[in-house]
Amino acid sequence: MLPIRVAQAATLLFAFAHTAGMLNTAYRDDQERAAIERLQAYVFPIMGVERSHHDFYQGMGYSLSLFLVLCAFLLHQIVPLMAREPAASRSLLGGMSLAFIAMTVLSIRWFFPAPIILSAVTALRLAYAALKLPPK
């Protein structure tokens, strides 16, 4: 189904671009370098380990990339399920759509156009696919 494939492509693009951005270690200027170095330098104990704020930032960034790849994989698995189990597919697509709607809202608040657009495209395509499934 095309809406699922569009959502899957947007999710994979989001994962790839997010990971590439995380791997980019170039600094825009000396102020950015200083800010990141401060985040890396402030190490504190938490639950028996030593971590910095930068560790949390990096870990959550890579966790998001992993989550996006998992979502793309799940979308690939849902396509054959849609023909056999439309009701189960509808609830899975609806739940994923709600998650991407929430991601869109969070992106509007804290990020920039690329994640906003990719989250919104994914959310809308998933909602459309869920609504187009035949009744039980």
* Physical arrangement of strands within the biggest beta sheet: 1-2
Mean pLDDT score = 96
Low-confidence segments? none
Query: How does the helix and strand content classify structurally?
Result: mainly alpha
Radius of gyration: 18 Å
Global outline = elongated
Per DSSP, what share of the residues sits in E-state strands of 2 or more residues?
A: 5-15%
Specify the oligomeric state.
single chain
Number of helices: 5
Largest sheet: 2 strands, antiparallel
How many structural domains in the coordinates?
1
Spatial separation of the terminal alpha carbons: 18 Å
Helix-strand pattern, N to C? HHEEHHH
Helix content: over 70%
Please give the number of β-strands. Answer: 2
